[in-house]
Amino acid sequence: MSASGRYLRSLMACMLACVFWVDTVSAQSxxxxxxxxxxxxxSRQILRCREGLTIIAEDGARFALVDRDRNGSADAVRxxxxxxxxxxxxxxxxxxxxVVTPQxxxxxxxxxxxxxxxxxKTSVFVVKGRVAVQRPASNxxxxxxxxxxxxxxxxxxxxxxxxxxxxxxxxxxxxxxQ
Length: 178
Prior knowledge:
Blueprint: H1 3-29, E1 34-38, E2 45-49, E3 54-57, E4 62-66, E5 76-88, E6 97-100, E7 105-108, E8 111-118, E9 121-128, E10 131-134, E11 141-144, E12 148-153, E13 162-163, H2 166-174
Parallel strand pairs: 5-6
Antiparallel strand pairs: 1-2, 2-3, 3-5, 4-5, 5-8, 6-7, 7-10, 8-9, 9-12, 10-11, 12-13
């Protein structure tokens, strides 16, 4: 390989490393009232926030906490890749909490749910409570209850709520050590 080829290869590797580092650092430096902790023996992170909100991020998840009302506490997260498991106690996060992905917005007032972004779709599953799901450019949405899930792809097709099979639920929850 030529010297210029090695240089370009090194430059690309550095850029990829910087993108990963920037995602992790931006989520951690913009902590919006949350503390980060690595789960021993894994590469998962647990975020514990002021209002009792708990977020478990699987290895490689790309996300950023958002403080929309600028009160010093997270009230949303932008998720771009992989999955988060969230537990938002009822009435503790004023105005509710939202997970915003390229394909969907999942908003709650008090519940435990998972959101996964992969291969051009967003999957939402509810463990307990209720979650409203809609596309970012739409006012029409659906409400999921415990044991229900949805796969949202880009476009305008109907949002279809389904009861997820135990195997799919187990596989998703295992990614969070649950």
